[in-house]
Amino acid sequence: MTLAAADGRSVDLRKEPVDQVLELVEQRLGTALDRSTVVRKRRTVGARSGRSTWVRVERRPWSRAVEQGWAGTEAAAVLTGVAMPRWAGSVVWAEPDDGAIWRADETSLLPSPPVGTAVLASAPALLEGWWAALNASLDALAAQPTTRVATPDTEVITQQHVDEVIRAAFPAAVNTDVTSWHPAHADLNWANVTSPEFCLFDWEDWGLAPRGLDSATLLVASLAVPALAERVRRERRADLESRDGKLMTLFTLAKIAGPHAHPDDPRVEPARAEAQQLIRDLQRE
Question: Is it the case that residue 73 has pLDDT exceeding 70?
Fold first, then answer.
């Protein structure tokens, strides 16, 4: 079952054979997985089980697992006031020859389909109650106690990391010191929320982060649809207008408008304009 990655290369589960992995998960969880429902992503594979639950299998290199931990979904089960799938159990195993650790988490099914892909090209039809549930969940999450540290884009977020990402893209940025840290989902995009009933899923990266990370991430994911971006800005105004929220917006913008900007990304130009305005705002503070 081992995937040949001991040489350090990246493994993409969208391309690798995963039948043996799914068979092992079935044996250890004691339930069949419906192959017609399999969803394959770069780091994860998911499928519906025979007991009407969802099983999400993640592969994480051992070096990253040691640094970051690997029990985000299980750890998130203690959160209160957040609309999320219920965690039912998990199995974990190491593959020494693969240099990786595998984890399968079983949760309740999502109440509605995902809104769309991570970045949207058109505005989704979201009810007022959806926005209220988003706000209630993010506000409840920010108030939870935790010692976990968030890993947006699989990188542990630290003050040094924030400095490096922002300054690589925007050398003119001024003081980037963060003052307030709160729990965040750390991967809040349109592929990880459902509608019409709101639910926030995929919790492997959650933990402490600078205030406003989630709001900034959702805002930047919406920049190709100006009306949607404005709605996110209005709903999450308290976070986004705080100094740390502005820094997190700049941090998130740097990842799409910096030195590695993709020429076909429709968010690049609005992101650069947004960044310049934020830099001017921060310079005045």
Answer: yes
CATH of domain 128-284: 3.90.1200
**Where on the phi/psi map is residue 8: left (φ > 0), alpha (ψ -120 to 50), or beta?**
left
Residue spans of beta strands (DSSP E) within 65-143: 87-95, 100-108
What does each C-alpha distance from 24 to 28, 37, 73, 88, 106 come to in angstroms? 6, 17, 20, 18, 14
CATH topology of domain 19-108: Phosphorylase Kinase; domain 1 (3.30.200)
Question: Is residue 114 helix, strand or coil?
Answer: strand
CA torsion angle for 58, 48, 201, 268 (degrees, to 10)?
Answer: 70
Q: Which two tokens stand for residue 187?
A: 């991967």
Structure tokens given for 220: 């930047």
Alpha-carbon gap, residue 171 to 123, rounded angstroms: 33
Nearest Cα to 188, choosing from 143, 236, 145, 244? Answer: 236
Helix (H/G/I), strand (E/B), else coil: 124 = coil
Per-residue tokens: 246: 């502005």
The predicted-structure confidence for 193-215, as pLDDT tens digits, reads as follows: 999 999 999 999 999 999 999 99
Task: Supply the pLDDT for residue 65.
Answer: 63
pLDDT grade for 265, boundaries at 50, 70 and 90: confident
